[in-house]
Amino acid sequence: MHRDPWLLPTRQAEHPARPVIDDVDLHGRREATFLVLAATFLVTSVIAPIFGATPTVDLARFGLSGHGLPALALPFGVLAVPLGLLAVTLVIELYGLRRASALVATGLVGSLGVAGLVKLGDAAAARPPAFGAALAFASYLAVAHIVNLALFAGVSRRSRGGRMWLRASFGIIGAQLAGWAAFAFVMYSDAVVVRDMTAAGAAANVTALVLAGGGYVIAVALIAMPPFALAARGLAIYLRVGHWQLVDDDIDDEQSAPRPAAFVRRVPPPPPRPQPQPQPQPQPQTLKPPHLHDRSGRHGIQPFSSAEMRFFTEGDMLDPGDSGELPKAQA
User: In this predicted model, what pLDDT tens digit does every residue of 271-297 receive, in sequence order?
Assistant: First the structure.
């Protein structure tokens, strides 16, 4: 089973001039940071399907469309998507691919759930159908995050964890290309099949959304990359997580995937407890029979009791032989 030794609070990367953090405090730091990143990702994952393709921001107001440029319509729900991508990338870098994959799977379930709610809303309210746009954005988010995970992990394996800004940029750009392709396929199919739009009108509408949305996400992600890399470095020190490297006790060969463990601190075993000294066992005392008890404290052995001795003494006193006279004859 794949293990994550760097997530255990008893194992932390040692940084120069940084003290070793208590296990309880380090566990609180890591979990609190993960909750913030996970909440950011989940919120951005449900905003896009909720808003769908409307409302949109016409980029012609900013001089980015018109005058020979293609029409660009930026969906309002895409504005927060770069934050979600950067949050997932931080989770991969700090917590590993397994926890990031679980987070992406949770976001996918949330996006599909929101799309289902939009479908119920279309059936309950008299409004233009919005399920197709919600499903298109859910597909875009799912494909984009999965591709981002795969590309970021693959490039990290090749580069051994160096140049994070380059790895993150490569992953985000590739993810946007794949994600918006999935969005275009679902959105075009919904426009032509469900809403009976012409092929030319559906293509123009989808192109405006894809170019505006994809360009916006890539531009914002690249602009935010330098502060993002600095934040990742600061969080790595704060959470005592090191750079990517191979861990010998969890891999089979040099081609196995690296994990961000850096120098994993081995906690010394606790000192052995002092063993109690065996107490000497008391010697069993054998009980002697009463007639064998020690009589050394007595003046001598008396074979008769005191009453018997008094009887004999009185008898001796009454014996006439003691006075030297013969007994008188009885009349």
Answer: 677 777 777 776 666 555 555 545 544
Q: Which helix (H) or strand (E) holds 58?
A: strand 56-58
* Contact by Cβ (8 Å): 266, 47: no
DSSP3 helix / strand / coil % (the chain, rounded to 5): 60, 5, 35
Rounded to the nearest angstrom, the gap between the alpha carbon of residue 86 and the centroid of all alpha carbons in its chain is 20
In this structure, are residues 179 and 149 in contact, taking their beta carbons and an 8 Å threshold? Answer: no
Tokens of 112: 């599909």
Which DSSP symbol is given to 198?
-
pLDDT of residue 329: 47
- Which residues are CB-contacts of 313 (< 8 A; sequence separation ≥ 6)? none
Residue type, 263: F
How remote is the C-alpha of 242 from its chain's centroid? 16
Residue 314 lies in a domain: no
Q: Do residues 250 and 5 touch, judged by C-beta distance below 8 A?
A: yes
Distance CA 153, CA 155 (A): 6
Angle formed at CA 241 by CA 238 and CA 2, multiple of 5 degrees: 145
DSSP bridge pairs for 66: 69
Percentage of the chain surpassing pLDDT 90? Answer: 18
Q: Which domain holds residue 235?
A: 5-250
Burial class (CB in 10 A: 0-12, 13-18, 19+), 260: buried
Q: How many CB atoms lie within 10 A of CB 283?
A: 6
What own/partner pairs with CB < 8 Å and gap ≥ 24 does 22-27 have?
26/239, 26/240
* Count of structural domains within the chain: 1
- Residue 295 DSSP label: -
Residue 79 falls inside a structural domain: yes
Give a yes or no: residue 269 inside a domain: no
User: How many Cα atoms within 13 Å fall on the side-chain side of residue 162?
Assistant: 3
The string of pLDDT tens digits covering residues 73-120 is 888 888 889 999 999 999 988 888 888 999 999 999 999 999 889 888
Q: Determine how many CB atoms are found less than 10 A away from the CB of residue 95.
A: 23
Average pLDDT over residues 39-62: 82
Structure tokens at 301: 């052995």
Residue 316 lies in a domain: no
